[in-house]
Design goal:
This protein has helices at about 15-25, 40-45, 50-65, 85-105, 170-175, 190-200, 220-235, 325-340, 370-375, 390-395, 425, 430-435, 440-445, 455-465, and strands spanning about 5-10, 30-35, 110-120, 125-130, 140-150, 150-155, 165-170, 180-185, 205-210, 235-240, 240-250, 255-260, 265-270, 270-275, 280, 315, 355, 360-365, 380-385, 400-410, 415-420. With about 475 residues, the chain is an alpha/beta fold. It folds into 3 domains: about 5-45 and about 90-155 and about 280-350, FAD/NAD(P)-binding domain (3-Layer(bba) Sandwich), CATH 3.50.50.60; about 165-275, FAD/NAD(P)-binding domain, CATH 3.50.50; about 360-465, Enolase-like, domain 1 (2-Layer Sandwich). Strand 4 and strand 5 form a beta hairpin.
Length: about 475
């Protein structure tokens, strides 16, 4: 009889591989099953990491192309784009990181199966092997516990089926062989804005069509407007409160047909259309129905506060369950399940999950927005401060944006921090730590911040909560 694993992790993305590592650190016998052939999930392979590589490269190109380096006394001429080299750099970064994750599996003595997993019972997982000497055969893994961590996949619109050529998803948008002259983006969330930024910087005329009245999803409305103004200044076009009704690919390019909030019929022409309408849990084909595991109509797996499904020894984490589809949120859930299985109090504080949109400037936030607090009837105070008044931002030549801090009116406890500005993703980190420790805006205001640094904008915003900002 084969060895029995303490836990079989299905899915090798951030939730799966991080959870597997933590379980192994706690002395559990662990197996991980991933069908892609490389570990890291969507994030490392076709999501967070390759998109950030392209964003970084495209930002350098844009600064050189539009003379921003000249402000620093650096004169350039005949700036040319080498798209294959740019793509090769991205591929090398992805390869390095995915190989690093595979090394961690070996280091932590985790058994790695490249294959498709399907639940047979609450203690048996069938794996169709897709690589190695036994490729094409199936193997049964016996286990005491199962962690479902299969992530999510792109949402396809019924009237805009992906063809990989004219109608593309974020995956194809990472691999375009040439810069489209015109790119229409359906969806003004993180993916649409980030990939739109990449191709706009490289020379595309980009139009973002968004159903909602604002971009950036559930972002603070005030700062979403700030971000949109900056992106418009860079050349990105927007059509808000616009419902896409059809996509016509019969001609050389694509024609996106839409309807505005007041019923006006409009069209957008492009060479390609990027559908960035969100993602959905990848919960099909796992055999969940066979075991009676509860899943809602959108494919979200139902779990309790300890990530257990209605089958007690089967857990689900990451994009499969409720909450924001973010790699770092998934990682913490994977770790929490591992610690629960290891006899420790695994826990995730959802009040301090940060999120970022990696445009330039970036948008980053943690906690509640003004709109959420108003809806909940919570009294609050707000302090904000612009990057234009910050010395470090001026020396960088990157002064767009601001920091907003929201604090409870009675206790002064920080309830939310929202940033649009240079390196907002890094600047936000202190706010996450502050909220984790239940800090007040005064705690941040009285804490040293090195000078000159971008983080001083956070301190000034905290001071502004009490109407005593000093540098503005």
């Amino acid at each position: 009889m084969a060895d029995v694993f303490d836990v079989v992790v299905i899915g090798g993305g951030p939730a799966g591989y991080t959870g597997a590592i933590r379980a192994a650190q706690l002395g559990l016998k662990v197996a991980i099953v991933e069908k892609r052939g490389t570990l890291g999930g969507t994030c490392l392979n076709v999501g967070c990491i390759p998109s950030k590589a392209l964003l970084e490269s495209s930002e350098h190109y844009s600064m050189a192309q539009h003379g921003e380096f000249a402000l620093h006394g650096l004169k350039m001429s005949k700036v040319e784009l080498d798209l294959p080299a740019l793509m090769e750099r991205k591929a090398k970064i992805v390869k390095s990181l995915t190989e690093g994750v595979q090394f961690l599996m070996k280091k932590n003595k985790i058994t790695y199966f490249v294959g498709e997993a399907e639940l047979q019972t609450a203690s048996k997982v069938s794996v169709k092997l897709l690589a190695g000497e036994k490729k094409g055969t199936s193997e049964i893994l016996e286990t005491k516990n199962i962690m479902l961590a299969t992530g999510s996949t792109v949402i396809e619109l019924p009237f805009a089926k992906f063809d990989g050529k004219k109608i593309i998803s974020s995956t194809e948008a990472l691999e375009l062989p040439e810069v489209p002259k015109k790119l229409v983006v359906i969806g003004g969330g993180a993916i649409g804005l980030e990939m739109g930024s990449v191709w706009m910087r490289l020379g595309s005329e980009v139009t973002v069509v968004e159903y909602a009245a604002n971009i950036a999803g559930q972002a603070d409305l005030g700062l979403s407007k700030v971000l949109m103004r900056v992106l418009e200044k860079q050349g990105m076009k927007f059509s808000l409160s616009t419902k896409v009704t059809a996509v016509d690919t019969k001609g050389k390019g694509v024609v996106v047909k839409a309807e505005t909030a007041d019923g006006k019929q409009i069209e957008f022409e492009g060479d390609k259309v990027l559908v960035a309408a969100g993602r959905k849990p990848f919960s099909q084909g796992l055999g969940l129905e066979k075991l009676g595991i509860k899943v809602d109509g959108r494919g979200v797996v139902d779990v309790d506060s300890h990530f257990r499904t209605n089958v007690p020894n089967i857990y689900a984490v990451g994009d499969l369950i409720r909450g924001p589809m973010l790699a770092h949120k998934a990682e913490e859930e994977g770790v929490a399940v591992a610690e629960i299985l290891g006899g420790k109090p695994g826990h995730v504080n959802y009040d301090t999950v940060p999120w970022v949109i990696y445009t330039w400037p970036e948008m980053a936030a943690v906690g509640k927005s003004e709109e959420e607090l108003k809806k909940a009837g919570v009294a609050y105070r707000v302090g904000s401060f612009p990057f234009v008044a910050n010395a470090r931002a001026k020396t960088m030549g990157m002064t767009d944006g601001q920091v907003k801090i929201i604090a409870d009116e009675k206790t002064d406890r920080v309830l939310g921090v929202h940033i649009v500005g240079p390196r907002a993703s890094d600047v936000l980190a202190e706010a996450v730590v502050a909220m984790e420790f239940g800090a007040s805006s005064e705690d941040i205001a009285r804490s040293f911040h090195g000078h000159p640094t971008l983080s001083e904008v956070v301190r000034e915003a905290a001071l502004a909560v009490d109407k005593r900002a000093r540098q503005g």
